[in-house]
C-alpha cells in the first residue's frame, strides 16, 4: 500500500477502536451523550472504509476517463459530509428520546476513559491531517477533520459528565452541543467538496505562483488567460500565452519547458495545458555591439562599450528608428554576457549581429531560448553589415 492508502487503513482500525471504547464507556455510565458518540464513531468507520476504497479507485485511468478518476475522492468527501450531518441529527433525536439515568458511581472511571479517547483522537487527527496535506488528499483531510470533531465533542461530554456528577443535569444540552459541532464540520466538508466537483478555481496563491513561473521565461511576452481547477488531490492548469518566437517547433519546446517548471515548483500538478501564439509584430529590432568609436563592430559582446539598435518595418523595410546606447553592464564582472543578453531582450531585440562566437556560451542559451536570432559576421564596420539588416541605402 502507498502512504495515503495506508493512512486510510489506519483510520478504519482507529475508528473501530473508538467505537468499542465509547460503547464500553456508554454502557458503564449510561450517558446519552456517549451513546450519541457511539453513533458518531460508527459513521466514522463507514466513512473511513469509503475513503480507503475511494483512494484506491481514484488512481486509476481508463479510455473512458482519460483525465483520471481523481474526483472520486471529492465524491467520497461529499458522502462523508452527508453521513456526518446525518449523525448529528441522529444524536439530537437520541438525546431527547432516551431517559436512561447515569451511573454516578462509575463516572470517575468513565471520565478517565473519555480523556483517553480525547488524547488518541487528537493525536491521530493531527497525524492524518499531516499525511493528507503531504499527499494533498481531500478525503484524508476531510477524515482528519471528522475525527477532530471527536476531540471537541468528547471535551463537551466530559464537562457534561462532571456536571452530572455534581448534580447539574446537562446531558441533553451537551449532546445537542456535540450534534451542532458535528453538523458544522459536515457542512464545511460538503461545501469544499461541491466546489471541487463544480470545478471552482484553485486558490489565488497557486495561480500567482504559476503566473510568476510563466512570466520569468524570457520568451513569454504576456499571459492572455490563466485558469486552474482541482481534481481530487491534483491540480489542472490551463494557460494562454503570447511568445516572442515565431517557429512552431521552438514555441512547442518553450511550452514544454514551462510545463516542466510548473510541475517542479508547484506540488500535485497533474496536467498543464498551454496554448501559445506568436507575438504580432510589424517590425524587427536589430542590435550590434560597437567599439568606442561607435562605428567599428566590437570584437567582444558582454563588455562591448556600445550597442547599435535599429527598428525596421517588416512589410515595407522602412527604417523607423536607429540609435546607439551605452552598454550598462560593460564594467560588470562575472556573468556580464548573460546580463547584457537579458538587457537586449528587454529592449525587444529580435536579431543580434556580432563578430563574437556565442555558441555554447551563456549568452547564446539566454538569447536562443527567448527566440532571438544570432548572426555571426566577419565585417568590421557597421556600414558593411547594414545589408544583413536589410536597411535601404
What does this structure look like?
The chain is α/β, with parallel strands linked by helices and 393 residues long. The protein has three domains: 3-197, Alpha-lytic protease prodomain-like (Up-down Bundle), CATH 1.20.1510; 204-278, 2-Layer Sandwich (Alpha-Beta Plaits), CATH 3.30.70.1350; 283-385, Dinitrogenase iron-molybdenum cofactor biosynthesis domain (Nucleotidyltransferase, domain 5), CATH 3.30.420. Helices cover 54% and strands 16% of the residues. It has ten helices and eight strands. Helix 2 (32-58) runs antiparallel to helix 3.
Rough outline: rod-shaped
Can you give the helix content as a percent range? 40-55%
Mean pLDDT: 81
The level-1 CATH class of the largest domain: Mainly Alpha
What is the rounded distance between the termini? 75 Å
Largest sheet, spatial ordering of strands: 6-5-4-7-8
What structural category characterises the helix and strand content? alpha/beta
Q: What portion of the residues fall into strands of 2 or more residues?
A: 15-25%
Could you name the CATH topology of the largest domain? Alpha-lytic protease prodomain-like
The tally of helices reads 10
Fourth CATH level, the homologous superfamily of the largest domain? Cation efflux protein transmembrane domain
> How many strand units?
8
CATH architecture identity of the largest domain: Up-down Bundle
Could you say how many structural domains there are in total? 3
Low-confidence stretches: none
Using the CA coordinates, give the radius of gyration.
33 Å
Amino acid at each position: 500500500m502507498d502512504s495515503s492508502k495506508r493512512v486510510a487503513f489506519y483510520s478504519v482500525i482507529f475508528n473501530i477502536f473508538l467505537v468499542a471504547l465509547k460503547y464500553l464507556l456508554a454502557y458503564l455510565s449510561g450517558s446519552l451523550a456517549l451513546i450519541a458518540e457511539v453513533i458518531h464513531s460508527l459513521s466514522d468507520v463507514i466513512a473511513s472504509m469509503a475513503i480507503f476504497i475511494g483512494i484506491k479507485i481514484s488512481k486509476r485511468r481508463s479510455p473512458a476517463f482519460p483525465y483520471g478518476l481523481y474526483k472520486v475522492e471529492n465524491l467520497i468527501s461529499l458522502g462523508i459530509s452527508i453521513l456526518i450531518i446525518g449523525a448529528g441529527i441522529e444524536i439530537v433525536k437520541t438525546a431527547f428520546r432516551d431517559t436512561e439515568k447515569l451511573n454516578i458511581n462509575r463516572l470517575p472511571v468513565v471520565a478517565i476513559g473519555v480523556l483517553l479517547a480525547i488524547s488518541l483522537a487528537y493525536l491521530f487527527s493531527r497525524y492524518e491531517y499531516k499525511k493528507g496535506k503531504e499527499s494533498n488528499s481531500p478525503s484524508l483531510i476531510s477524515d482528519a477533520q471528522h475525527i477532530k470533531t471527536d476531540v471537541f465533542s468528547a471535551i463537551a461530554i466530559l464537562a457534561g459528565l462532571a456536571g452530572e456528577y455534581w448534580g447539574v443535569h446537562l446531558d441533553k444540552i451537551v449532546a445537542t452541543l456535540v450534534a451542532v459541532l458535528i453538523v458544522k464540520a459536515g457542512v464545511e466538508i460538503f461545501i469544499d467538496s461541491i466546489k471541487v466537483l463544480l470545478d471552482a478555481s484553485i486558490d489565488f496563491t497557486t495561480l500567482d505562483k504559476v503566473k510568476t513561473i510563466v512570466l520569468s521565461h524570457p520568451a513569454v511576452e504576456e499571459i492572455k488567460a490563466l485558469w486552474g481547477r482541482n481534481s481530487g488531490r491534483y491540480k489542472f492548469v490551463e494557460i494562454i500565452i503570447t511568445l516572442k518566437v515565431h517557429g512552431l517547433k521552438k514555441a512547442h519546446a518553450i511550452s514544454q519547458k514551462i510545463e516542466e517548471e510548473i510541475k517542479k515548483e508547484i506540488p500535485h500538478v497533474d496536467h498543464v495545458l498551454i496554448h501559445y501564439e506568436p507575438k504580432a509584430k510589424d517590425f524587427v529590432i536589430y542590435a550590434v555591439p560597437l567599439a568606442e568609436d561607435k562605428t567599428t563592430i566590437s570584437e567582444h559582446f558582454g563588455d562591448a562599450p556600445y550597442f547599435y539598435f535599429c527598428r525596421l518595418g517588416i512589410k515595407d523595410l522602412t527604417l523607423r528608428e536607429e540609435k546607439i546606447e551605452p552598454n550598462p553592464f560593460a564594467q560588470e564582472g562575472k556573468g556580464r554576457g548573460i546580463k547584457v543578453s537579458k538587457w537586449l531582450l528587454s529592449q525587444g531585440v529580435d536579431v543580434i549581429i556580432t563578430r563574437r562566437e556565442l555558441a555554447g556560451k551563456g549568452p547564446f542559451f539566454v538569447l536562443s531560448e527567448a527566440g532571438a536570432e544570432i548572426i555571426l559576421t566577419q565585417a568590421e564596420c557597421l556600414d558593411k553589415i547594414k545589408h544583413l539588416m536589410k536597411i535601404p541605402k
